[in-house]
Amino acid sequence: MKKEQEHTLVDLIAQHAAEMPDKLAYIMLDDKGNEIDHLTFAELEVIAKAQATKIRSVCDKGDRVLMLYPSGLEFVQGFMSCQYAGVVAVPVSLPSRKGEHHARISHIIKDADIDTVMTDSASWPALEAWFDEVGIDDLNVIVSDTVDPAMEGRYTPVDLCRDDLSFLQYTSGSTGDPKGVMISHGNLIHNSELIRDRLSHTKEMTCCSWLPFYHDMGLIGNILQSVHNGSTLVLMSPTSFLKRPATWLKAISHYKAYTSGAPNFGYEYCLARVKDADLEGVDLSDWVNSFNGAEPIRQDTIDRFFNRFNKFGFRYSAMYPCYGMAETTLFVSGGKPGVATRPCVLRRISMPETLLSNALRAPKRRSPASVAALSKAGCGDCRA
């Protein structure tokens, strides 16, 4: 499909379902690396159409739909169903405790003018009890995994354009009330193209992710890349990663993942928790893009991760520091795949010597002890 034809995710799913219906779009793993669920492109289209038909029975085009799901393929199906229905998805973290998490969701319900809530049957009882407790009783509720797939036959296509909103990406709210960034279908296609082209993604590759499904890096950088490129994505939940981080590295090896990544803490977590004995038979040599973003990137972490895991085939050139933010959909800057990013060395100099060019020049022929310097990871050039 030519770029000018790539209007929405709906167009791309339909294309993949027609051209490679039996290809796996998503594989879901448990914390031990066992496959517990999977979804082909054809299955994804059928479920998306069926659930979209249900959504359109209670929503109009452009209505806001709150998505409250655990990390699983039900989330993926629900998000794609919102695209097919022409409604605006609002994915947020499923609350795990009362107080802050519930207050955040209550704020988003009001701020986004939510009409409908989508969830799964396992999560609905607890959500229903909370809604009753706080007096939220004016929302439509769709328990998506109870929708009959046969409703796919009643689906009526929605007229979508690139300027229509696809979803609202809410900020964490760590410095104030959460704020929703409006992401259009055109924004998604444009940024997905940037990620594909910058990381040299193809439909033949496999990616792997444990990142939160509702977060921009997990959603746009991983889940939607599968739909955009027609590739396969291996998923595990953040909880599974925290429980057994070695499972992430084992999955990268087993599925020969081309791209997989994490915030800086994920690499530190592996350094602290993964033992060599956990990685018997692991080969990380097919891992081309090991992206690092979403929080401050430490050059020291990059160096130590390489030094620790190069015995398992991990290459320094795979490290891919990058920068992005919800306000630009996601991707802003990054380097070239398979090319080691050169760190920037900053010298500490006194005021009389201050020249910016000197500050950015690495010290030459001096011992580390003779000059105070900071080594910072570079995030490539801007592409947004």
Which fold name is given in CATH as the topology of the largest domain? Rossmann fold
Q: In what order do the strands lie side by side in the largest sheet?
A: 11-12-13-14-17
Q: Categorize the overall geometry.
A: globular
According to CATH, the homologous superfamily of the largest domain is: ANL, N-terminal domain
Counted by DSSP, the helix tally is 12
Radius of gyration, taken over Cα atoms and rounded to an integer in Å: 22 Å
Helix content: 25-40%
> What would you call the structural class?
alpha/beta
H/E topology pattern: HEEHEHEHEHEEEHEHEHHEHEHEEEHEE
Low-confidence stretches: 1-5, 362-371
Whole-number total of structural domains: 2
How many strands, which pairing sense, and closed or not: the largest β-sheet? 5 strands, mixed
| End-to-end distance | 22 Å
Mean pLDDT: 87
CATH-derived architecture of the largest domain: 3-Layer(aba) Sandwich
Number of strands: 17
What's the CATH class label of the largest domain? Alpha Beta
Could you please describe the fold and organization of this structure?
- With about 375 residues, the protein is α/β, with parallel strands linked by helices.
- The protein has 2 domains: about 5-30 and about 40-205, Rossmann fold, CATH 3.40.50; about 245-380, Rossmann fold, CATH 3.40.50.
- The chain has helices at about 10-20, 40-55, 75-85, 100-110, 125-135, 185-200, 215-230, 240-245, 245-255, 265-275, 300-310, 355-360; strands at about 25-30, 35-40, 65-70, 90-95, 115-120, 140-145, 165-170, 180-185, 205-210, 230-235, 260, 290, 320-325, 330-335, 345, 375, 380.
- The protein has a 5-stranded mixed sheet. A 4-stranded mixed sheet has the order 2-1-10-9, sandwiched between helices.
- Helix 11 links the parallel strand 12 (about 290) and strand 13.
- The protein is globular and about 55 Å long.
